Amino acid sequence: NAGVTQTPKFRVLKTGQSMTLLCAQDMNHEYMYWYRQDPGMGLRLIHYSVGEGTTAKGEVPDGYNVSRLKKQNFLLGLESAAPSQTSVYFCASSHQGGVRGNQPQHFGDGTRLSIL
Amino acid sequence: SQQGEEDPQALSIQEGENATMNCSYKTSINNLQWYRQNSGRGLVHLILIRSNEREKHSGRLRVTLDTSKKSSSLLITASRAADTASYFCATGSNYQLIWGAGTKLIIKP
User: B39 and chain A: CB distance < 8 Å anywhere?
Assistant: First the structure.
């Protein structure tokens, strides 16, 4: 099983350029998440989705958009990249938590993005 | 905003020794999870402890949870070189996990 696959693994952009980060999971998970990880900080949630066709804002959504047209895919878009968006981006997925709360999240290996 | 705070930020021990990492959090939780991250890789789930549990074991891992003190600890016994990684706690409520900044563990041969 591939689990969670992120593409691309590395990318360098110029300020103002746009791009889309792709995330695919083959575990039939309902929930999917996009995080960014910066040095010395924990993961910060950008956007998440609790099902196909639904998305919601996380802690740091500004400058990003997402779409979940298919259950297995979750796309993260940067419309006009800024140097402050230089980071490592992780996608994760999980089964729905229900009344017992969150389930373990499964992560991809990240996309390392540099904005010049 | 960070919910969990790990302590220490970095820990270096000899192979074979035990490693203890602590996590404190601020608000009520449904559960607390620990993850490991090897350099250049994604996070891997280690163990989940629910708010009504006090202790949980998985192999060489032992996790405790004290909801009155809003704290948790992760103990790795008989450490190995392969345990070198960063360890993160995350607290769950609603749909989201909120993450600490992590403890960087180095196991010296």
Answer: no
Distance CA B17, CA B88 (A): 20
Query: What is the C-alpha separation between A34 and A58, in angstroms, rounded?
Result: 9
In order of A61, A115, B96, the CA distances from A48 in angstroms are 10, 23, 8
Phi and psi dihedrals of A100, rounded to 5?
-85, 0
Half-sphere exposure of A93 (CA within 13 A, CB side): 23
Contact check, Cβ <8 Å, A48/B95: yes
Gap between the Cα atoms of A33 and A75, Å rounded = 10
Q: Do residues A105 and A3 lie in contact, with contact meaning Cβ atoms separated by under 8 Å?
A: no
Identify the pLDDT of residue B1. Answer: 45
Which bin fits A83, alpha (ψ -120 to 50), beta or left (φ > 0)?
alpha
Question: pLDDT of B29-61, one tens digit each?
Answer: 888 999 999 999 999 999 999 999 999 999 999
